Amino acid sequence: MDRPLLLRALAGEPLPRPPVWFMRQAGRYMPVYRELRQKVSFLDLCADGDLCAEVTLQPLRRFPFDAGIVFSDILLPLDTMGLGLSFGKGMGPRLSNPVRSAADVAALKSFDPVRDCPAPLQALRILDEAADVPILGFAGAPFTMACYAVEGGGSKDWIETKKLMWRDPAAFQRLLDTLADAVGDHLQAQVEAGAKAVQLFDTWAGALSVDDLRRWALPAAARALSRVKGAPTLYFTRDSGPFLPWLHEAGSDAIGLDWRVDMAHARGILGPDVPVQGNLDPIALYAGHDELVARTNAICRAAGPRGHVFNLGHGITPATPMDAVDTVIAAVRAFRHDGVEAAG
Ligand code: CP3
Predict the structure, then answer these.
(1) Residue 28 among the catalytic residues
(2) CA 203 centroid distance within chain
(3) DSSP string for 48-116
(4) What is the pLDDT of residues 80-101, one digit of tens each?
């Protein structure tokens, strides 16, 4: 088998067209997923390695994606560390036992991915045989995990998180270090189970100023990624634009871009040797066919032939029409960079 396009793109090789996969490509926009979720809760699904493998395969059977991402959730480790994770109907995640003090940080249980989070590892071992395309593993970045751990759920302002960060920096640092080691071990266990690349999601790093990003989030991400050997790493934030000159401090092999940043501008700042992933607005999938194709082609063209993985700039939304997914994938697969030989 030829080396998969995903790995060639992440290695910075020139390719006639980029590989394509979507964040959250397994999920509610697919009727087969919704049908399964009638029968099993989200957390029960995440705890069952066979079902996680099955759900990972759902979009790969329906669409010609060049990669998959193992079905799981970034918040699972927080549950086993003692924080009490639940998902209320339409309410998003809740942690019943949030971390608000140095004593709470000290009371966190240790996290061993093999003991505490075996389902995604089992799914990856199944997928290593069952999937025709490379499967990515993932984890939440330490800062984003800390946001949920401290706040006890989602937030607009992350006030409790920033309060702990500034009022008790030693405790917050200890929390980030603990989480960094946990998610780093989690990523490495996924690589050992068959993940061909891993992505660190720093969804909420955009709540920080550049100074705080560099003081807290990026060193913690780098600490986590330093534990990963044997597979390329991606670092994604939802608000990459203002942070471009500093994102390399996370120490990842590639950078995931959200949809607000201009692709050519981002590549100019990051430099030609840093592979990038992105960055179609997930809401563009609700635009008409021609608009969607034009936007898809524009991103491919602006990214250039070296080191680009096509993706959305954030997760696909549940009401996305499936024919729009067909349209984007077909446009990427038909795209050709001028003057690049050797098909993929
Ligand atoms: O990309 C994939 O297909 C892999 C699966 C995946 C899920 N969550 C499945 C999921 C991944 C990579 C995640 C990561 C994740 N989870 C992040 C970071 C990525 C991002 O979107 O920025 C965050 C912040 C979470 C926490 C989380 N889990 C939230 C905020 C929610 C939404 C709650 C809701 O009610 O919509 C979840 C639930 C979740 N994780 C779903 C899926 C498919 C929806 C569950 C369902 O109702 O079936």
Answers:
(1) yes
(2) 8
(3) -HHHHHHHHHHHHHHS--S-EE----TTHHHIIIII-EEEETTTEEEESS---SHHHHHTPPP--HHHH
(4) 999 999 998 778 999 999 999 9
- Tens digits of per-residue pLDDT, 4-44? 999 999 999 999 999 999 999 999 999 999 999 999 999 99
19-281, CATH topology level: TIM Barrel (3.20.20)
Q: How far is the CA of 5 from the centre of ligand 1 (A)?
A: 26
* Domain range annotation of the chain: 19-281
pLDDT for 1 equals 57
Measured distance CA(206)–CA(242) in Å, rounded: 9
Q: Is 24 a catalytic residue?
A: yes
- Quote the DSSP letter at residue 208: S
* 3-class secondary-structure state, position 20: strand
The pLDDT confidence band at residue 120, using thresholds 50, 70 and 90, is: very high
- The set of residues, in sequence order, having a beta carbon less than 8 Å from that of 39 and lying 6+ positions away, is none
* 315 CA → ligand 1 middle, Å: 8
Task: Name the residue with the closest Cα to ligand 1, atom 48.
Answer: 42
Residue 6 Cα distances to 78, 94, 264, 305, angstroms: 30, 34, 20, 13
Cβ atoms 197, 7 nearer than 8 A: yes
